[in-house]
Structure formats: structure tokens, C-alpha cells
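Per reviewer request, we include the raw input and output of the structure prediction for the construct analysed in the revised manuscript.
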Amino acid sequence: MRLNVIRYVFTFLFLLLVLDLFYLQVIRGSYFARQSRNNSRRVISFDGPRGNILDRNGIVLAESLKTFDAAIIPQDSTAKGRQAIFMFLSGALGIESGVLERRYIRGRASPYTPVPVVTGLDREQAIRVTEGAFLHPGLVILEDYKRRYPRRAVGSHLLGYAAAVDARRMKDLINNGDPVPGLVGYTGVEEGFDEDLRGIPGGREVEVNSRGREVRVLTLRDPAPGADIVLTIDQRIQQIAYDVLGGRRGAFVMIDISSAQVVAMLSAPSFDPNAFSSGEGVDDVSAYLKDTRSPMINRAYAAAFQPGSVFKIPVSFGGLQERKITAGTEFDCPGFFVLGNRRYQFPHAFGRQDLVRALGHSANEYFFHTGFLLGAEKLAEYARKFGLGERTGISVPYESKGNIPVRSSYRNWYQGDTANMSIGQGDVLSTPLQLARMMAALETRGRLQTPCLVSAVGSRGDLCAGAPQSARQLVFRDEVWDIVLKGLSLVVDMPSGTANQLKMDGLTTYGKTGTAQTGAGREDHAWFAGVTRSSSGRFAYCFFLEHGGSSANAVTGVREILERLRSENLI
């Protein structure tokens, strides 16, 4: 009896084993066979090169150069093995093992995604690592593309830079199920057109043995480059403006009025974007961040400043259009203005002035009177007509809209606030790009255009073709245009005009100077916003020096630029 029980038990266990084998080999056989094949295969992806960024003449401003990366596949390496890899790479490439380990920890995304720990290797270095890689499972050499900026610091704020994906963006990409690229764009054109510039990734599927070592390549898909971006920028003008600014804090923006294309957009001091595109620029990046001149600030369109007397242009239009003043209206400009218990003191006494001469001399007293006649609400209204206090719509991120004070948003508004607003001081803030755009609208008698910066993306060309037609039209009486433009011409043509040194053979120039007080014992901001006509076209521009002192310094800078443009037949 006991023997029969034992026999039944063994028979049951044997049948159970047979059923389990039948389930694993027949019912689930195809699944486990597929898993086995997958366990012997690895898919290693690699990015395609980012598209190039070119200026209007085909000059390369940003390009991708083929390099190699030493990377670790987490799944194919143990903790002990990774330490051995770090030590091997440290000896082969002269990089501290601790630095390599920190890069690995920061860059790990998924078990099968290679984590680059050394980027930008040349061919000789890549061969040196490959020769020792067979002793270190999980260590692979990947083809990569390094971002290079041949013009270095010239125009770097506009271009932005490409660098490794930061933690926030990597998390967003993984959550969206998107592939994690080796480089993404930060600021400027690199960020604004990042998806267009990104290459299409390729990859290879390889068979590996039980130790994770590559046996053979099963499939290979070549990467494809991203789209090239063609800017409206003329790099020759950029270089001239860069030389004239000479590292001083400021900016220069120039627009071709006929097409609304931005031919120059420069901020200074600038930075070398190459420092961000490779892991070797850490010290340079740290120096930029500590620099008291703040070279990372984009002063051309991403930061706003008091425009000073340049703001007198919309004040003049408002006074005339609202019939608060006429061409013949005169105010006394004795070199000071008394408001309540405060006395505003100015360096020059001009006596009786009409609007035209007041613009030519930039007589503050005249615009105090006009501002009080208009009132704060109308001052804001006419400023906004000219696009101040709003973004221009240019196709790069982080554009500042500046600020035009609205009286109703203040708990207390005083006459002193209206006075400051009348001459572009106080809470009035503008960008050089906004003021260049405003000057272009003056030359076209009211066509306020969205500046065009990118003329082609890949095969999509003529992107600026509709810019002049899509403009907002400003409507003023003809005599209003005539009076204000005459006054702005006197700024240059009158011997005592504030920008008389811009009277040059072969060029017709008009515009407005601005000296904006910044308080706290610091130097004033210096401005000149103008229009120059030549045989080759019409150009609106704005030259700005942050804490640059008198507006005469800005005028001198403009003259240097115009002289060089003329000598090189660029204007």
C-alpha cells in the first residue's frame, strides 16, 4: 500500500514535469526563442549630424564635425567592471576617473542606451581605446558629431549653442518616448530651430556573446543630417560691429528696410559657444558666469533698457496727431525744468524751440511740456503704436517685450512719472531690436514689420518673402510725418545737431540720439537709432552702449560702422 502511494506521487510529479516542459517548449516556445535571440542582440543608436547654420552669403556659422565618443552600455557592465573602465580610460586619455564616473551617473538614461563619458575623441584616441575595449565588457566607441562655431564669439548670442541634454530636458524626452539626442540647442537659433537642426538618428544591431562582447553586425542604418538653416545675417557686417563694440557692453541691430531682413544682430561682450559644445570648456563657462560684464546676457533683443531721448519720437507723433502741439508751437528750453520742489538740470540751454529744432537739439524741456499735454495714457498709446512694449515676433526664443508703463496699473502715479516717461526714463524699457524696427517704420511711413531672421530651413526657402506684406500699418496725417522726419534729419544735418558727425558724403542719415540716466552713480546708457540711405539700399539700425556715457559715444560707434561699411561696399 505504501509502495503504491509512492508510485502515484512519482507518477504525478513526472506528469507535472512533462506538462511544464510541454508548456515551456511548445506553448511558450516561440516567446522564449524570441527572448533568447533578443538577449544576444544589442541595438546601438547614434545621432545624425546637426544641420549647418549659414549666413546670407553661405558663410558657415555653425557646423558639425565627425568625432568619436567613448561610451558605456550599463546592461553590459557590472559595477566592478565600470570602475575598471574608468581606470582604463583615465590612463589612456589622461582624464580623472572620478570625472568619468560623475559623467556616467549624470548621463545614464536606460540600461541599453550608451552613456558617453568622453566625447570629441580624434581617430587616434578612438583607436587607442578600441584596442583595449575587448578587456572591458560594456565599453564601446561611437561615432559622434561635435558642434563647431568657426566665428567663435562673433554673433554668439544670436546663434546660441548646442550642448549635452540637461536633466530636465532628458526627463521630458523620456516621458514623451522621444529618443535622447547627444546635443540639443540652447538659446538663439540653436534652440529656436532645434527640431529642424537635429539629425535623424541611425544605429546598428549587433550580436553579442554571453559576456556581452560584440560578435557581428546584424543590421546597419546610416544617420541622416538635420536641415541647414540660412540666416538673413551678413557675417561681414557682424564682424564690423563686433570690432567697433570692442567688448564694451552694448548691442547693434541693423535691418534692410525693403525686405525687413535682419542683416546684423550683435550683443557684447560675447562668449565662445565652442566652450559649451564640448566637455573641455568647463573652466571657460565658469569664467563667463563669473564675469561682472555679464557676457551671457543678450542685449540685442533679450534684455531691455531705458531708451532715453529716442523715446521722444513717439512723443512727437502723439503731440502732433492729437493736436496738442503744431509745427510752430514753441516752449522755452533754458537748460532746466522745475516741477514742484524738484529742479531738472540739463547741460545745454537752447532758449525758445519749436518741435523740429527741439528734436535736433534733443531739448528735454520741450518734451516735458508735450508729455504733460498728452498725459501718461496717450504717451503709452503712441509708444505701443510703434511696437514698444511688445515682442517683435522675431523667430528666436527669449525675446523681451520691454515695458511701457500703464498708469492704471500703478497705485500712485505722480507728475514726475509722466515727466520721466516723456523722455524715455523711469520704467520705460526698450530693446535695441524694437528701436531698429521703429526706425524702419519711420522710413516706410508706417509699415511696422516683423523682422525676418531666417530665410530658409532645409528645402523650405523664401521664408522672408511675406514679411513686408504682413506689416501693421500706422496711420498719421501727412504733415505729422513731414514734421517729425524733418526734425530727425536736423539731428544729423544741423551743425548743432546731436549726431552731426554722421553727415557723410554719399550717405543720407537721420535718427535720434539718447542718453538715459541709470542712477546709483553709474554711467548713463548711450543710444543712437537711425536710418541710412545709400545707393545700395535703406537700412534702419540701433547702436547701444550700456553705461556707455554720453550719446556722442554711440554716434561715434555708428560713424565707425558706416565708414567701414561704405569702404567695403556693403552699404
